[in-house]
Design goal:
The protein is of the alpha/beta class and about 500 residues long. It has two domains: about 5-135, N6 adenine-specific DNA methyltransferase, N-terminal domain (Ferritin, Up-down Bundle), CATH 1.20.1260; about 155-455, Vaccinia Virus protein VP39 (Rossmann fold). It has 17 helices and nine strands. It has a nine-stranded mixed β-sheet. Helix 1 packs antiparallel against helix 6 (about 120-130), helix 2 runs parallel beside helix 11 and helix 5 (about 100-110) packs across helix 11. About 40% of the residues are buried.
């Protein structure tokens, strides 16, 4: 049976269980089981390659000892073992010496949950995984990597979980343009399921990794932080699938909960590539970790301030931001002013509305900047929809090949992008003009006139975009009013 068929049959079994409700829970249930199976497969390899290898897991909790036997525990005994023995043991796992693997396992399971109620159905799922997944077979490992990408895409239809998945075409393009190289420290401070990090690993391996020492250097320089448990679990598993043996640099934490001034020079990184959550509001008190000038509860705005702090001088960033940031005022204006003063925001790519459908139809942009020199001008590039395509959707997502024209136009930052020329998609705006606009970066394409459409699908997408922009503006207004009220209260 193919891995694809195995995963589908597992999901079908889970649908019979009364405890598993919806795609997100099915995915969470599947991933912690897959994590333990994949980890056991990796341990088999480590036992062969490393003298005196010692598992971080106590013997009763290794997959081979409780799950691998198809005729082993089932029913109430299996359910009781998982709920009352396995999970408590893994959530409180202590490291043996300096073994970071125990830390990784504990961080994966600290907020994981066994949703399934039927021990019989659990046994069926476990047997399917045991039969259908062998991560030590190179061909199956490659196929499983593809299947895992499909699982992550399925998140887009799983309610709010879709926010943690950036389309593969976008991640590949952003990584290619940011061009992380061997020895550079790369971070995604809102890493979700690890799409940018896995693309970075593939990119650096292809460009630079020639020796075992090179591979070790690559693995030591990949960093990610994710706030929510399901995407953190997915990311950690994703890193193991991409050959990161001990993904201890993937942390389960809220990056914004750390005071900005506590990020010291030793914490700085060479490259940040990320799609920070936007449209949401941080919990009360998080904004106090930031200077008063930039205090807001708008998540994406706080991440941009953090990224400017995180980067070394000469460090590069590529991130996704919504239109609301470009034209927003108040604190957003002060953040944009600092960005243009401290960094060279050399390129803004304006994406079509439906790139992130169905999770959101808000229009998004890709911002590329380098820290250390101020912005003199910004190049804008309007990425068009392919000919004959009215909008992207789950079955017809954006393809990386669509960025080929933009990639050919891009040029090199080392020579100031001297080869770039204006065309129907590309134009540049000077710093003086941006200052005159009070740092409104919502610069329309001057080569395209106002276009009126009567297509119902396009009009509906525009309506949804307007609704979401209104909701975002409402959140901003609430934040501004809350800040004003707090200042007034403090003054009294």
């Amino acid at each position: 049976m193919s891995i694809s068929s195995t995963i589908k049959s597992i999901q079908d079994i889970m649908r019979k269980d009364v405890g598993v409700d919806g795609d997100a829970q099915r995915l969470g249930q599947l991933v912690w089981l897959l994590f333990l199976k994949i980890f056991d497969d990796r341990e088999q390899a480590w036992e062969l390659l490393q003298d005196n290898y010692q598992s971080p897991l106590p013997e009763p909790y290794r997959w081979r000892n409780w799950a691998a036997n198809a005729e082993g525990m089932t029913g109430d005994a299996l359910k009781s073992f998982i709920d009352n023995d396995l999970f408590p043991a893994l959530q409180n796992l202590q490291a043996k010496g300096n073994d970071q693997r125990a830390y990784v396992i504990r961080s994966v399971f600290e907020d994981a949950y066994n949703y399934m109620k039927s021990g019989q159905l659990l046994r069926q799922v476990i047997n399917k995984i045991q039969e259908g997944v062998d991560f030590n077979k190179a061909q199956e490992r490659h196929l499983f990597g593809d299947m895992y990408e499909q699982l992550l895409r399925d998140l887009q239809a799983a309610g709010n979980a879709g926010e943690f998945y950036t389309p593969r075409a976008v991640t590949e393009f952003m990584v290619r343009m940011a061009n992380p190289r061997l020895g550079e420290k790369v971070m995604d401070p809102a890493c979700g399921t690890g799409g940018f990090l896995s693309c970075t690993i593939e990119h650096v391996r292809k460009q630079d990794v020639k020796t075992v020492e090179d591979e070790a250097k690559l693995q030591a320089n990949i960093y990610g932080i994710e706030k929510k448990p399901l995407p953190h679990m997915l990311c950690t598993t994703n890193m193991i699938l991409h050959g990161i043996e001990v993904p201890s640099n993937i942390r389960h934490d809220n990056t914004l909960a750390r005071p900005l001034i506590s990020w010291e020079p030793k914490d700085r990184v060479d490259v940040v590539i990320t799609n920070p959550p936007f449209g949401g509001m941080e919990e009360d008190g998080i904004e106090t970790n930031f200077p008063a000038t930039f205090r807001t509860r708008e998540t994406a705005d706080l991440f941009l301030v953090l990224i400017m702090q995180l980067l070394k001088t000469g460090g590069r960033a590529a991130l996704v931001l919504p239109d609301g940031f470009l034209f927003g005022e108040g604190i957003k204006t002060r953040i944009k002013e600092k960005l243009l003063q401290d960094c060279n925001l050399h390129t803004i790519v304006r994406l079509p509305n439906s790139v992130f459908a169905p999770y959101t139809s808000i229009k998004t942009n890709l911002l590329f900047f380098t820290k250390g020199t101020p912005t003199q001008q910004i190049w804008f590039y309007e990425q068009p929809l392919p000919a004959g395509v009215k909008a992207y959707n789950k079955t017809k997502p954006m393809k990386v090949e669509e960025f080929e024209t933009l990639s050919n136009w891009w040029g090199n930052e080392s020579d100031g992008f001297s080869t770039r020329q204006e065309n129907e998609q590309a134009w540049k705006v000077s710093l003086a003009e941006l200052q005159a606009r009070n740092y409104n970066l919502d610069c329309k394409n001057p080569h395209v006139g106002e276009q009126i459409t009567h297509d119902p699908e396009v009009l509906l997408a525009q309506y949804h975009t307007m609704q979401q922009e209104i909701a975002s503006l409402r959140n901003q207004l609430k934040s501004i009013l809350g800040e004003a009220l707090a200042s007034s209260t403090q003054g009294n």
